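Holo model, zinc ion. Inputs:
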Amino acid sequence: MGASVASVAFISVTGARTVNYGESSRGSFHALLNRVEMAGLLSGLDAHETNLVLAKYRDDEAAERALRAHVRLYAVGLALEEQWKITKGRPIVCNMGALAVFEVISPGCCRRCNGTGMVFNHACNTCNSSGYKPASGRAKAEFVGVHKYQWQQVWNDRYERIYRYVLDMEASVETKLAKVSA
Ligand SMILES: [Zn+2]
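Output:
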């Protein structure tokens, strides 16, 4: 019993992009939180990782704000290091930080397979059976505030690195939680 609950939670922590067992990832994670003391569960996580968990699975707005601030700083660091050309007054870098956090915390559910990754016992080809439907390049460009061509040429690669940073943070959470629930 313990092992199966842990594995569901383990997968739910990796996000809807991997597997969804027919219930929302939030639901299965809450089940784990009820079984394991929250404090003990989070004790192995650093402040940013804790914010990620609280923001993603507890809808904690303060934690989400703090995480956004942290990821924006990371993005600004990248921009300075690589001397990205940015028109003054355009919050492109900050918007990319916010988008990366949003994408990890609230991954879009694939509407075709309803997040299960399967359609009539076949792998869903809309989302490549991930259950997760990423935002389109156009939608990301719009959110960040650049033209879609500019997005494809310049900003998408930069954004992917910021997004990867948050994903890596999530992967680290997953590793630590797997140890706790083992
Ligand atoms: Zn799908």
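Residues 110, 112-113, 117, 124, 126-127, 131 surround zinc ion (CB under 6 Å). The two ends are 12 Å apart (CA to CA).
Archived with the compound record.
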